[in-house]
Amino acid sequence: MTARRRDERRVPHTPAFASDLDPAIVQLHSNDYRSPSQLADGLVLVVGLGHSGADLAMEVAAAGHPVIVSGKGHGELPWSVDSRAGRIAWPAMKFVAMKLLTLRTPIGRKMASEIRKGGAPLLRHRRSDLLKASVELTEARTASVKDGKPALADGRLLDVANVIWCTGFGPDFGWIDLPIFDHDGWPLQEHGVVTSTPGLYFLGLIFQSGFASMLVIGAARDAAHVVDRIASRIAQTASSRAAPTPSGAS
Fold first, then answer.
1. Would you state the pLDDT for residue 78?
2. Domain boundaries, position 15
3. Segment among 38-52, 78-92, 227-241 with least mean pLDDT
4. Least CB-packed of 52, 110, 150, 249 within 10 Å?
């Protein structure tokens, strides 16, 4: 098989009942959100309390919209990564992300399964920041639609003008017809290299080698590893083709 690399394709996920919302309600997935100018006047429901959910809720609230965030969080750092404390602690956080929270450690493997299901700790805007910005937080998930309005799992019906779906992405591996996936549908790979299928590589997987894979510092490390393996494979192929044929061989 010729060496090739293909980035993971990720499909924005929205629940099936999203199509039942009143057409007058502006709804966007975080993938399509650019600025508060896309929104109608009035209440904004942000579905999902992850990085995107917290960031967009803060931005939309700063633009003057009342905001409700629906969903449980997945923990948070003691301080924002953008704060002075965060900058001071960054070397330690980087070490943990790069060296400890990897697929080679028990704690890293446990975290990988949770993060791949959806959700990571808040890094920039934390719950206290959202509350100070007058953002309403509810752990009740957005569960259905009733009379064209989003309904929470606790029975509350929300009269909103906008919904921003910060509900993540689903991987699309439909273009690969090979037995290389685990029981959860993720590629069986080592640092982006599929050892069972020489010449097949991945980049951009969640927790490809560790927690840092979803950060710039980790993505660069993963890419360098994959490129090195591709280069080695090409060199080995070229060397084998250039090797002289043994005397007397047919």
1. 67
2. 10-76+121-170
3. 78-92
4. 249
1-30 pLDDT, tens digit per residue, is 333 333 445 678 899 999 999 999 999 999
Residues 134 and 44 in one domain: yes
Q: Identify the pLDDT of residue 8.
A: 43
Pair of tokens at residue 120: 């990571």
Query: Is the pTM higher than 0.90?
Result: no
Q: Work out the number of other CB atoms within 10 angstroms of the CB of residue 23.
A: 8
